[in-house]
Structure formats: C-alpha cells, structure tokens
UniProtKB/TrEMBL annotation:
This is Reverse transcriptase domain-containing protein. Residues 2-105 form the Reverse transcriptase domain. It comes from Petrolisthes manimaculis. InterPro entries: DNA/RNA_pol_sf, Rev_trsase/Diguanyl_cyclase, RT_dom. It holds the Pfam family RVT_1. GO terms for biological process: DNA biosynthetic process. Transmembrane segments: none annotated. It comes from the Eukaryota.
C-alpha cells in the first residue's frame, strides 16, 4: 500500500541515502521515490491518498467510492451487498477507482460462494482473518 504513493521531489531528497559496495570508490547517492514502510506518518499518508482517489471519483462511481471512503480500514475493505447480482460490477468499479491511484487489490473474499468456486479453491482453508477476527466466508460467520 505504501509503495503506491509517490513522494514529491522535495520529499524524495529528504529520503536520500548513500550506498557503497566497495571501499575503494565513492558511495552512490540514492533517493526513495515512494512512501517508505518505516516512516511514522506512512500509514496516514497512504490512507489519505486512497481516500483522495476515491473522493475524486465519487461523482462518476458514487457507490464504489463510498465503499472505499466509509468501509475501509488501512488496506482492508469490508462491505456487504444485499443483491449478489451487484457484486461483480461493484468489485470491478472499486478496483478501477483504486487503480487510478496506483492501488491494487490483493484478493477478494466473498461470502456464499457456489460449489464450483469452492472446487477451484486449492488452499483448503475455510476461514480468513479480517481485521484480526477469524471469519468463515462460506457460512458468513
């Protein structure tokens, strides 16, 4: 998530470091171009960038943008739809918005999958961890 957010040129210079492979030559100069994992403010910057991306598309995609804005915590999005028919399109729209900000979905976990989808699941796991809580998507509990 952090690597999705680019640093400004000024901030990139603040994240400059030297690297030398051999002692017989001068060190090379490097500067980070993306928000690093180690900065205290990195989580806040990444969440703000994701929210600004969603806010930018809320007129064109109101429901998916609202899902990102209201149903996300860090890099987890937890949302429920009443109509299973809406799910694929909503998922595509959420992914589209996030891609505009260089954010990419790792995976989707959907409750109530069909048996054919279960047969494709080779992991053998029946539960997932969501925000630190164990959840069984098949039983939705």
């Amino acid at each position: 998530m952090f690597n999705s957010v680019r640093l400004s040129e000024f901030d990139s210079h603040v994240h400059r470091f030297l690297w030398r492979d051999f002692e017989d030559r001068a060190p090379d100069h490097y500067a980070l171009t993306a928000v690093p994992f180690g900065d205290i403010c990195s989580p806040a910057i990444a969440v703000l960038a994701m929210r600004q991306t969603a806010d930018k598309y809320k007129d064109d995609f109101p429901i998916p943008a609202n899902i990102i804005l209201k149903d996300s915590y860090m890099d987890d999005i937890i949302h429920s739809l009443d109509d299973a028919e809406e799910t694929p399109e909503t998922m595509q729209d959420v992914e589209f918005i996030l891609k505009q900000g260089n954010f990419h979905m790792k995976e989707w976990i959907v409750s109530g999958r069909t048996q054919a989808e279960e047969d494709v699941d080779l992991s053998g796991t029946t539960s997932e961890k969501v925000l630190g809580v164990v959840w069984n998507p098949k039983e939705d509990e």
